[in-house]
Amino acid sequence: MYRYDQFDAQIVRERVAQFRGQVARRLSGDLLEDEFKPLRLQNGVYLQLHAYMLRIAIPYGQLSPRQLRRLAEIARDYDKGYGHFTTRQNIQFNWVALKDIPDVLEKLAEVEMHAIQTSGNCIRNTTTDHYAGAAQDEVLDPRAWCEIIRQWSTFHPEFAFLPRKFKIAVTAAEHDRAAIRVHDVGLHIRKRGDEVGFEVHVGGGQGRTPHIAALVNPFVPEDRILDYLEAIMRVYNRYGRRDNKYKARIKILVSELGEAEYIRQVEEEFAAQRPDEKIDLPAEEIARIHAYFAPPPLAEKSAGSKLLDAAKVADPAFARWTRTNLHPHKTPGYASVTVSLKPLGVAPGDATDAQMEVVADLAEQYGYGDIRVSHAQNLILPHVALDDLPAVYAALDAAGLGAANESRITDMIVCPGLDFCNLANARSIPVALEVQKIFADPAYEEDIGKLHINVSGCINACGHHHVGHIGILGVDRKGEEFYQILLGGRADEKAALGEIVGPGLRADDVPGAIHRVVEYYRAQRTSPAEKFIDTLERLGHQPFQDALYAAD
Amino acid sequence: MPLIKNGEEIANDWMFVADGSALPDHTKVTVSVGRFLALKAAQGNEPGPKGVRLSPEDDPAALEPYLAGLSLIEVAFPKYTDGRGYSQAQLLRRRLGYSGELRAVGHVLRDQIFYMHRSGFDAYETARATVSQVLEALAEFTVAYQPAASSPAAVFRKRHGA
Fold this sequence. Notes:
The complex is a heterodimer.
Chain A: H1 6-28, H2 33-41, E1 45-47, E2 52-56, E3 62-63, H3 65-78, E4 82-85, E5 91-93, H4 101-110, E6 127-128, H5 143-153, E7 168-171, E8 185-192, E9 195-202, E10 214-221, H6 225-239, H7 250-257, H8 259-272, H9 283-291, H10 306-314, H11 316-324, E11 326-328, E12 334-339, E13 350-352, H12 353-366, E14 371-373, E15 379-385, H13 389-398, E16 413-414, H14 429-438, H15 442-448, E17 453-456, E18 470-477, E19 480-487, E20 499-500, E21 505-506, H16 510-524, H17 532-539, H18 542-549
Helix pairs in contact in A: 1-2, 1-4, 3-12, 5-9, 6-8, 7-8, 10-11, 14-16, 16-18
Chain B: E1 3-5, E2 8-10, E3 15-16, E4 29-32, H1 33-43, E5 51-54, E6 72-77, H2 84-95, E7 101-106, H3 113-119, E8 123-125, H4 131-138, H5 155-159
Parallel strand pairs in B: 3-4, 4-5, 5-6, 6-7, 7-8
Antiparallel strand pairs in B: 1-2, 1-8
């Protein structure tokens, strides 16, 4: 993974000192809250319902064991013993005191971490495929380019006060696990012969007006991608709407201008760059950063594992976990492991300090020191030998991390909702936990197959309800929580927005309604191999909608 | 309102003349882009204002033919959260080659000044920051990742000996 050199370390140190000064000026009253707000936001500090929340950047979702242990320590010393992993591959702490935040940032800086630009109207953490560097279907490892984008976008002087927040996602695999089409900018790394370039999508997003991104350029050569991003950002900074925060995202600019005109403006700005405006990243610098992402020194293995096969026979629960929570690795004899943060009855994405330490230990012992956070709010050990899976599973299971539900119905993406967030209209965690209970039998859940349920507590859509196969959206109606159900969303390379099927349901009615939809699918699928989303596409939404509203 | 340039407070001997108000005899005034262009169209080469003030929605490229004759461009920040002025500054300095004074006016706060400096501003008219605070803000970062209109140079150049 990337390691800081003297310059990276210097920037983060200077940031800690700067923020310490800003907090001191705020506490002394020299800085007005209104003036402090954008400054604290650009350092990930939100004022939530009960306390300040600190969101820490995990660039493209990668952590070392040392970093994860440091997060565990912060959870223990400054929070209530847990942290919440987010859909943008970051972590947030909900109970940190403002006066302690500079100290927390200093502790983060010691392990090459920060909270820079994790909020505010600036370029946020660049996200990517959580199997990057391990996936069979990637043309190259996208993390080096994510790091290059991270550096370029950090404290970019021109783009710190954009009309609205700005999110970039990168994938290099045919199967899009980074949801690039619902980001402000989605980049798909492609190869034309030996040439590497970026397919550029702009203007995707969720929130109250969801959009699938427009394809703006099919191939920007890699040595020009930062210049192209500068053109995209400048057009947005100059012409994005600033009169209404709900119309300020780049998706609205693209849709109001029309794709053709928007593309013309970006291409015009790109073409107008003078030679001395170009970011001529030296080839040595590109090579320097790529070198940090060299594949780990995996010991040579045969494709199968007798140890694994024997353990599967001995323990059906382990066998099930190997069927659900492993992803094929590009190297024979290895797999990528999903550590599910969605056990029954726990707020999705939460991990305790002790659990973080268990995962850090396992990564060190069995996983080449590599840990990822997925946008589905799970942790990943990308490189584990098949022979080591029984030991890894035993340790995870003992720590309450053995749920066999990756991409299954209980592996829900859920925002914090009204329990924590001052934007929310409804609670999202309790309704998710009630739905989980219906599908608590692991055999039943495995039979249902891959099915994404995403839950948001308001139309800002932090729980990605627009792109769940089944979406659940909490709304407030005259002081009572109701839940609207959406069908047919997806975030992958066939990205689509779910449609609201009809009137909202009371919280108590949601689990039964979802259960009827799932049972309808099981009755109608051509075989267990036909996924929920495929049956839904084949039959259309109407019969599923009828099932949803059928009386028990 | 204090005006800070090159690390010290200086006297402001310029004045902004709003549209509709009469212009004084001297040329040390800034006017809106619209008025400036109208005067140029009407007066040709006669001396006119030597300064102009950009609003966030103005396109700096409209000034391109006249930049050599301008001594001061003010960029207005009606609200400090409106970041359009940073793009205007970068365009003036890097694309259009303007080398006169570039002054941030309006809601100019201490914690924006480092970004303003890097975007090409060299003067700050601010009621919310003292000279020492401005100097402190300018010194907060000694390293920067990306090229911009002014120092520090991008770190990738330093890494490779440029």
